[in-house]
Every structure is written in C-alpha cells, then in structure tokens.
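User: structure tokens for this one?
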Amino acid sequence: MASQRSTAAEKARRLNLAREVWQQLGDLPPAVTMLMKEYGIGRRHAYRYVERARRLKGLLTIPDATESFTVKLSRQLAARVRAHAAATNRPLREIVTRALVAHLARSGGRG
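Assistant:
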C-alpha cells in the first residue's frame, strides 16, 4: 500500500517539531530517532526533516487547509485569468486567492 503525501500543514508541523528537537538535543541521531518514533517515518525521511529544520530561521506558519470548489466564469474572463497566471508565472489558485482576498478586504468581507 502506497503511503499518502503529507499536506503542507503536516510538513510545517513536522519541520517545526524537528527544529525544536534539534535545538533541544543538538545532536542529529537522537533527533532523527525521535522523529521516527513520533511520526512513524523512516530514518531517511526523518533525517531530511531534521536537515531542513536546521536551516530554518524560525518556526514556520501552519497554512490553512485548502478546499476545492467550482466557479462558473465567462470564457473571456477565464482566458484573461489564465493569461495573467501564465504571464506572471503563478498558479491559477494564487491569482484567484489574491483577487478574492483583496476584494473581501476592500468590501470589509461583506457579501
């Protein structure tokens, strides 16, 4: 059975814990062992978390969970959004998220 990929929030939590463990123990093998036990992951995987966590300047922010939903847009507007995403080399979700956040901020979050 294939294992499921970690979400961004799970990765951030694991990296934050790896950073805290590394700072407390200051030694790689015990930190790796602790992560292996805590998350049920292999040595190599735990080692990668600790190595990455050692380079962090501070704790990571835990991102909100995401949800998919379908929105009907005119073909012209959808094409404009896709063109903007391609021109700025950003994913559609980022373009749409930024637009919605900006709109809600301007309207005070009112419908």
